[in-house]
Specification:
The protein is 28% helix and 26% strand. By secondary structure, it is of the alpha/beta class. Helix 5 packs across helix 11.
Length: 347
């Protein structure tokens, strides 16, 4: 089969690898229908995160079950399945506590595990990991489901951590796919005022379509002061979706005393956390990897009901054989997010 690997900094290759096979009775083999390139894929691609030459790539994907192990009972051949970006056994203390991304026997797609930017994937703990959907899913619905595997669920997690409430105010920092999805999640949660702060003016309109009531530029020196002023002392809920030092600093600057920052941006280049300022202002910081599997059932139900559509974050689509171009497009910020379709992955 064809699979994407990172061979060196800036060097994405599509290589031939053996087809995945069942290794454990709890495994499934899934044919990938649609995958995506994530902003966090760019960290190792740019050399800003450690990797090993030949690491497999892609943690956002949906597909069709081809084969199941003898102990898999929830899935059948032909099922379309949504895969969270991490697999987990579903039975350990972390899984039972609602944080399957901390499962001791689990892991993330890519690296030394199968990656989703490929033609097929072996899925450990298939019953606990995958969510089956009806098989008659058209391409439009597939595109709406794909962001649930990571960015929509992660944006939702930011609002959960930040304590967004119906009728409340939230500041969302970051206008990448996760930040835009956090805006959409805040609207879904019933927030009355949703303030989007980003660096890319061309994404402001999408933020507004997703529910932002106000849009500001992160690099404008007046942004923090303006937000604090018209929120009457800052927002009670702030979703930090970028993972950079400047984003965390801005989040702290616009959180009101007693408020909470929900941080879901993969930390990169954060060298200091001003704990004294958190302490003095009674500001809470909750951070962590989104437990996507915990949120999937409710998010999928909303997509199937037609009340949730995160597909607009997918602003480009390419064939798997052009996956290296997909990374370049993402790296140059010519797309918010690129969907990747293996040959025969439609319909």
């Amino acid at each position: 089969m064809k699979a994407t690997v990172l061979q060196g900094v800036g060097e994405i290759r599509l290589v031939d690898l053996p087809d995945p096979v069942l290794r454990e009775p709890t495994d499934a083999v899934v044919r990938v229908r649609l995958a995506a390139v994530c902003g966090s894929d760019l960290w190792p691609y740019r050399g800003q995160e450690a990797f090993r030459a030949g690491d497999r790539m892609g943690h956002e994907w949906i597909g069709t079950v081809e084969e199941t192990g003898s102990e898999v009972t929830r899935l059948r051949k032909g099922d379309l399945v949504v895969a969270p970006f991490a697999f987990a056994d579903g039975d350990c203390p972390a899984c039972r506590d609602g944080v399957p991304t901390s499962c001791g026997r689990g892991g993330f797609w890519g690296g030394g595990n199968d990656g989703g930017q490929a033609e097929a994937v072996r899925v450990p703990f298939a019953d606990a990991t995958l969510v089956p959907i009806r098989s008659d899913v058209d391409d439009d619905l597939a595109r709406r489901l794909l962001p649930l595997t990571d960015v929509m669920a992660t944006g939702h997690h930011a609002t959960v951590l930040a304590g967004v409430v119906r009728g409340g105010t939230v500041v969302v920092i970051g206008d990448g796919a996760v930040g835009l999805c956090a805006v959409l999640a805040a609207r879904r949660a019933g927030a009355e005022r949703i303030i989007s702060v980003g660096r890319h003016p061309e994404r402001a309109e999408q933020a507004r379509r997703f529910g932002a009531t106000d849009v500001h530029h992160a690099d404008d020196p007046e942004t923090a002061g303006l937000i604090v002023e018209y929120t009457g002392g800052g927002a009670a809920s702030v979703a930090e979706c970028a993972g950079t030092q400047s984003a965390l600093d801005l989040a702290l600057a616009v959180t009101r005393p007693g408020g909470v920052i929900g941080s879901v941006g993969v930390p990169n280049g954060i060298e200091r956390v001003d704990l004294y300022r958190f302490f003095r202002a009674n500001v809470g910081l909750r951070a962590g990897v989104a437990p996507v599997r915990v949120y999937l059932d409710a998010l999928i139900a909303d997509v199937l009901a037609g009340t949730l559509d995160p597909a607009p974050v997918l602003t480009a689509e390419m064939a798997l054989h052009d996956v290296a171009d997909a990374y370049q497009v993402m790296d140059r910020r010519k797309a918010i997010k690129v969907a990747v379709r293996p040959a025969g992955g439609s319909g």
